[in-house]
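In response to a reviewer's request, we include the raw inputs and outputs for one of the modeled complexes. The two entities were modeled together in a single run.
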Amino acid sequence: MTTEDIIQPENRVYGKPSLMNDTPMHYCPGCSHGVVHKLIAEVIEEMGIEEKTVGICPVGCAVFAYRYVDIDWIEASHGRAPACASAVKRLWPDHLVFTYQGDGDLACIGTGETIHALNRGENIAIIFINNAIYGMTGGQMAPTTLMGMKTATCPYGRQPDLHGFPLHVTDIASTLEGTCYVTRQAVNTVANIRKAKKAIRQAFENSVNKRGSSLVEIVSTCSSGWKMSPEKANQWMEENMFPYYPLGDLKNVNKE
Amino acid sequence: MGKMRGAIVVDIERCKGCNLCAVACPLNLIELTETVNRKGYNYARQHTVEKCIGCASCAMVCPDGCITVYRKKEE
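The model returned the following structure tokens for the whole complex.
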């Protein structure tokens, strides 16, 4: 059997989802954003609700998410994505409404919007990309930056007396009554990618079925901000981020 | 039961040479080329085509979705 025999349309087992268009992504090589975009496109495609989906773009690296996934998007101002999503979901209760936010956007600029939207139990899904750094603006310290981690604005490492402690937004969200599903995932290995896809699917189903707010945190890498190769960044994340941000479900109301 | 044979097709111009597919491949069949694409990235290629089982690990971890995987049972 030659390679040409194998490469036939009927033998195709995996490829770029059809909802993801051919626009080359502006993300750095090895960026976790690409994998999460792909998962979102796959889940929406599997659910068959691309005509009834509204995504809210953040400010940050994923600001151009609307260029890559072929659904309806709204571009919210800094940190205001959950507020924007609340409005859309209230006007279109049968739609899937989700936000896609980074840690600078969700945990710093939009902490108020995020916590109150989750506390109100708005039927939205929030995808939270936590890479412990402000990626787009040049690698400054974020609220989620780990202790001792060096960034552009804390070149000697994050100090508790000067910069305070890393913020666990997902843990805070799990204590709120409005949330129905709060989980922390990663996309560094194939197994984790499968789990993250399941989590995104669950969050999206919660939004469609009006079960309450869902928050899916994805612990991610920022190889450019961390100044590492993509492979090294994944290793560093496993060694340093996972002990501080352990993976797994923090709250799942539907399961109990 | 017949053995599974796989093959991958890399979208060379979309590839950014992050090397994550090479790390994810359980059989270590992927490497980055010496040559570069139009953007200047060393792109991914499969150096041993015959051994691929089409597990799609490389395509799943690819952030840019540039790998398409095909799989067929060997008769």
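As requested, we also summarize the result in words. The radius of gyration of chain B is 12 Å. The domain at 4-73 of chain B is CATH 3.30.70.20 (Alpha-Beta Plaits).
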